[in-house]
Give the backbone structure.
Amino acid sequence: MQLPPNPADPGSGSRPAAPRQSEDVGLVRRIAARDQGALGELYDRYGGMLLALAHRVLGAPSEAEEVVQETFLQVWDKARTYDPARSSVSTWLVLLGRSRAIDRLRSRRAGERAGEALRTQSPKHASPSGPADVLFRERRERVREELAALPLVQRDVLEMAFYEGLTQTEIAERTGLPLGTVKTRTLLAMKKLRTALRAEIRDLL
Amino acid sequence: VTDTFDADDRDALRALGELGLLGPEDTDRGTRPGDEASEARVRLHTEAAGLLPYGLDAAPAPAALRSRILAAVAGEETMAVRGQARRPPSGARPPVSPPAPRAQVAPILVRRSRWPTTLAAALAFVCLGLAGWLFVQLDEQRSQTARLRAQVRLLDQREAELEAMDEQLSAMRQNVGLMTSPGVLACALRPAEGEFHPARGMLFVAADHQHWYLSLKGLPPASAGQTYQLWWDADAGMVSGGTFVVAPGGVAQLATATMPRGTRAVVVTVEPAGGSPQPSGRQMLAGSEMQRLL
């Protein structure tokens, strides 16, 4: 009687190594030395992804472009403060861009509740074409797979917090769930994602 | 969020707090900065969050936006340069031009300036210093990356161990659940007639007569080229339940969710490696008396 084998580790398969962190750090150092060409290169690498992020948060294309522009101008000003020990360049840019987009969303919410309507216009997964970068495509597929593998209730609270900037209390009000449940789901989603995406994270380091 | 956290939970809480996804009342329960392993785990969570937007559809970055950004940056630089060129205050008198030099009548002794050589030497010295500094920075970066990679490997290993333990715990829970379920039957397995060894076993069969759990202990390791095989004495005759190996201590724990129809007895034999279609080897254990436990 053969006992069932251990399930295969999803992160252990062979995959092409595509580390670009060292190149990215080089670009940020050049930007810190006031190299405008380096800023252009960084935009070519991450502009599309940051635009998609801002669009997902704000819904309006024109506002999304403004946020991306502000983000890259912030990169130009703050490149000297970037610390590779704290985060990869990719994550640094994502956090800068998200922060600006969420700030804008919150100030917009203060006067109106148009976010719902705008969000429905946002192309969540609508565009069939993406950047012709193999690394980005692979990463996108992996992130989508792992997000889809999360229980829906966990994915929802994580996305509401990350893309809509809602506090845990606001999520609890919107979903009708107890506050403690919302917090637990956010924590579980974060931990599962970290485990599931460890190969991708390794590429970023 | 419960009040019982392990280190991983506390690191995740801290990362969520730093990302602004949890409030201070929860992130206060997270780890404090300083511990190197904790820092590495917090960073893993941060990087995981940073990967989220990769799941979105990204169109190529617009060239017009690129031009706007670069133009804004170029304008900023130009303004900065202009700002450095100080204008005289409006009320100040214009600078007086120096008087034109008078023509020299006497021949001028031409002397080669040493400035270019000095400047070149200074530049070379600065370049050398810069190269050295960059080399040191690069070296530090490399060693830091290596340290982080080692930490990630260690964390992966720990995680795999935890997953294995979790699976074991889950299997144990299932088996305990079966053993304590209503209507469960138990059957003791003892050495077959004429056999003298310390091996014993206990078979638990759920009320549905399908789920079962068999615990064996004291079985000696099978000799080279041989294996243990489980048999069901059922309506269809002797049906193989599969081969198995024993862990150190002669322990084996087996369970599945299927049992042949009309099973009356269970037998463990020693068979050639790979198993046999019918029992042919030494019969080690057997049991046939089913007793209701609960």
Notes: The first strand of chain B starts at residue 185 and ends at 191.
